[in-house]
Give the backbone structure.
Amino acid sequence: MRPPQRRRRIPQRRRLFVGCEGESERGYGAFLTRLIEEQELAVHLDMAVLQPGGGDPCAIVELAVQRIAQKQKSRGEPYDRKIVFLDADRLGAVPDRDQRLLQISRREQLHLIWQRPCHEAMLLHHIDGCAHLAPPDSSAAVRELRRRWDDYRKGMPAARLAERLDLDAVRRAAAVENDLSIFLIEIGLLP
């Protein structure tokens, strides 16, 4: 008679809420999920697209708080961490809203990943030799990214991002994107 087989113990995965301003960030989050799985990290990213209209960062954070409450209530357990990707191009337009956004994020313990000035600028920093580039606005960021990645399109899915990006690319971006770096260290993708 054979001895009973031991079940392999699967560690409990940390569940993180990741709020995305749009489909581009969701594709990037799904790309990070691929890297998390390759590295066999015990982390699950629960992605949510937050599009209240107009890209108002405060409205996005307010919607994130609502979604988090809904998801935690339906699951019956809190998130280990709550993250929101935001474009910084609208930051400073309405100082009172900016203050409200910061108050909400502190109160709700949200880690904000500011993409300066936008998601495409952050993606640009993934490309070898582009870490020093600092496009002044979103249009310039898209132009610069497309010069180096001619078939880039907004809202690219993870599979298309993975054709061009890898863990080394993420490390390059994290070297100049502090908010992203903090998040990547926390989930174990960076030491």
Observations:
- The chain is about 45% helix and 15% strand.
- The first strand starts at residue 14 and ends at 20.
- Residues 83 and 162 are 22 Å apart (CA to CA).
